[in-house]
Amino acid sequence: MTLDLVVGKTEEIAPGIRELTLVRPDGRLPPYPAGAHVVVECGHGRRNAYSLTGCGVEPDAYRIAVLHIPDGDGGSAYVHGLRVGDRVRVSRPRSAFPPVATARRHLLVAGGIGITPMLAHVRAALRWDRPVELLYVHRPGVAPYAEELAGLLGDRLVESTDPDEFGRLLQAALREQPIGTHLYVCGPGPLMDRVLTDAAAAGWPPERLHLERFVPAALDPGREFVARLARSDRDVHVPSGTSLLDALHAAGVAVPSMCRQGVCGECRVPVLAGRPLHRDEFLAADERSDAVMCCVSRSETDALEIDL
């Protein structure tokens, strides 16, 4: 289900980064957990996922911040071109990166525009009096929300603009946390990979590591396989380099989809037999044996039987 919203405010909050405030003139906005995102329809069939920066309790508006990517697919340029009063269609908020309520402590690590879901996490942590600290690495002079975060967190915010310094700060932060701390990371892919690798090397268990990718991971084309559609008794060939979603659509099988990045959850399909090759950021560990996100994920086995 989508929401028809109106741009209430648009503001450049850092070089190349614009914040949009989206309001719903005809009713209340649905609440959401911190770390949630919406999928924005960006014209010409493009749909991009953007994190909401509020804590999600009784929201009077949805706020997103978008980095303009000149060589992107045009989605960020579309958002930067929106003006006050323009209408925008967005999905209801979806949650794939919520804070763990039982965590003893929350360690947040953000790089660049990856600060947007972390701002929501900070607001939620302060609202519910949860221990939190934030390590924020950014380019000099390009630090969206840094001033606001400094006011919210005080000395619990640590900023860095130097990769070597960030590495030292990260190592110290990973070593100093009490058992039961959960780590959340969002930013460019190499930064996220580094944080997760260092955390694993420091002995952090996987169930306490949480990530949110704002740029889809580069995926290899994968090997071909057959999707067996149980309800319609059909086989659909999925070639290397073609997503399961596109193969199903080409075969005339209707499957809803939105972000096509493995983050929104719209194209989830039940798995009946076979072993999925998961490449999404949406499904939890206990959901991965019986479902697949067909926009990005594939099959480890020659055939994957799905409930279509």
TrEMBL record:
Cofactor section: FAD
Domain 2Fe-2S ferredoxin-type per the UniProt entry, residue ranges: 225-308
Keyword Iron: yes
GO molecular-function term, one example from the UniProt record: oxidoreductase activity
CDD domains cross-referenced by the UniProt entry: fer2 (cd00207), PDR_like (cd06185)
Positions of the FAD-binding FR-type domain: 1-100
Keyword Metal-binding: yes
Gene3D superfamilies documented for this protein: 3.10.20.30, Nucleotide-binding domain of ferredoxin-NADP reductase (FNR) module (3.40.50.80), Translation factors (2.40.30.10)
Pfam family membership, one: DmmA-like_N
Keywords assigned by UniProt, alphabetized: 2Fe-2S, Flavoprotein, Iron, Iron-sulfur, Metal-binding, Oxidoreductase
Top-level taxon of the source organism: Bacteria
PANTHER family in the record: CARNITINE MONOOXYGENASE REDUCTASE SUBUNIT, NADH OXIDOREDUCTASE HCR
Name listed for the protein in its UniProt record: Ferredoxin-NADP reductase
Organism: Pseudonocardia cypriaca
